[in-house]
Write a structure and sequence with these properties.
Elements (H helix, E strand, L loop, with lengths): L5 H7 L11 H5 L1 E7 H7 L17 E7 L9 H8 L1 H15 L5 E7 L3 H17 L3 E2 L8 H8 L3 H14 L7 E7 L9 E6 L2 E4 L2
Parallel strand pairs: 3-4, 3-5
Antiparallel strand pairs: 1-2, 5-6, 6-7
């Protein structure tokens, strides 16, 4: 009789919700996503069994959790908000960009964000999404001359990005077969990402 609750406690040991085996603070530092049991079994074959036969009433999904590299409160608040919603926001941006420009083009991506580590994460996420959508993506980032950068630095973003796009095309940094996707924070007080496309010297704001 004493051993009967053992399977229940063993199952609770893997539960990401706060409880006996995990504090509330530890639970908040988990990032979880719900998967179908078939996908979870493919990713974690040793931990998730094969899906049951059709017609059964067993649970057919799984919750996959990973521990954050940085705990809650260690990042600045804006960085935390941007990174916590990065997959969704970048997915929306790349979807909109793909709808605007199609065809055999080479995509270049860069992110403009005050924290370089966060900027790198944003750029990598956007590149990954574009590749998954079937686009050809280059690792090369367009760079302007020092004189152009000195002028652009003094302009507000709404003027700087269109002018930079014109200079990319005028100097041959980008050709007619290239498209540049830029992701950025326009106002330092906001947490939402903006984005624009540079195509044949013309800048198009996506959001």
């Amino acid at each position: 009789m004493l051993l009967m609750p053992l399977p229940v406690f063993m199952g609770r040991a893997y539960d990401p919700a706060p409880g006996i085996f995990q504090s509330k603070e530890e639970a908040r530092n988990l990032e979880c996503s719900r998967l179908s049991q078939a996908e979870a079994h493919e990713r974690y074959p040793g931990q998730v069994p094969e899906p049951p036969a059709r017609g059964t009433w067993e649970v057919t999904d799984a919750l996959a959790c990973t521990r954050r590299f940085m705990r809650n409160g260690e990042r600045p608040a804006r960085d935390e908000v941007v990174l916590s919603s990065l997959r969704r926001s970048v997915g929306d941006i790349t979807q909109a960009a793909s709808a605007v420009e199609a065809g055999e083009l080479t995509w270049h991506v860069d992110a403009f964000y005050p924290e370089p580590a966060v900027a790198a994460k944003i750029a990598v996420a956007a590149k990954t999404e574009l590749v998954e959508r079937g686009h050809k993506v280059s690792d090369r980032v367009p760079v302007l001359a020092a004189g152009d950068i000195a002028v652009l630095w003094k302009l507000p973003p709404k003027q700087a990005y269109p002018l930079a796009c014109e200079r990319y095309f005028a100097q041959g940094v980008l050709t007619e077969r290239d498209v540049f996707l830029g992701l950025m924070i326009v106002d330092p007080r906001e947490t939402g990402l903006h984005a624009g496309l540079c195509v044949r010297g013309e800048w198009k704001w996506l959001q």
